[in-house]
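stuck on this chain:
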Amino acid sequence: MYPFSIGVILDSFRCPIPEAIKKAHEVGATGLQVYATAGEMAPEAMTPEKQAEFLKLCKENNLVISALCGDMGHSFTDPAKNPQLIERSKRIVDLAIALGTNIVTTHVGTIPEDPNCETYKILQAACKELADYADSVGAHFAIETGTEPATRLRDFLDTLGSTGVAVNLDPANLTMCVEDDAVEAVYTLQKYIVHTHAKDGISLKGDKAQLNSEAAIRAAAGESWLELPLGEGGVDWPRYLKALDDIGYKGFLTIEREVGANPEADIRMAVDFLNDHIR
């Protein structure tokens, strides 16, 4: 039996947060992640009273917070905007700690191949400031995988000299978006992985003859990837979960479902799928 816990991104239910928390419990999850960049979960909206109310509802449904989502528009590549984005990211980390987690997942932008180019240096400076703050409060900003190959992300993180900026490993993003091996990525990024997303999908960039009808239609329309229910995409789940166990990961597999007409049914199926593989 693998030592993983199953979570779900509340926003995947596409309903109000109190209702989504109850649904998360009903489908069998033990943890949750929620967006905290705007709206009722934003730092400025989460007064001490609101925090207590949210935590009480989580506790009543036997849920803990696996992470907050703090995506700042997917990019820290504009030095004019970075001071504001970094400051807001810090406040989301403060909120995360108040809610009992020390992980905030984020996207920082695509890391260039050339470490000497200007964009690389801008990202490096922003992430160094984020890492220093995370270290000072015992937290992690976890970059979600999929905008570049795992080896490039690892090499970039190595330049920071810290795990304050770490990794939220999304195997589907690697498979769909950069056609990278999610299993190998576990070993490549192992020292930085603090959280994972459970998602599946395929790239539509390869041999069109191998695609089913829906995928072929999407590929013909110019789409480059297709998200699918767990087990129906390109992620090799038995090998992937074994790899996470091999590196000593004991955290959450947090289900993210961004498409589909019936997300609750898809999430329930994903929980059952993961439980079958964990056991």
User: Anything to note?
Assistant: The radius of gyration is 18 Å. The first helix runs from residue 17 to 26. The chain has ten helices and ten strands. The chain has a mean pLDDT of 94.
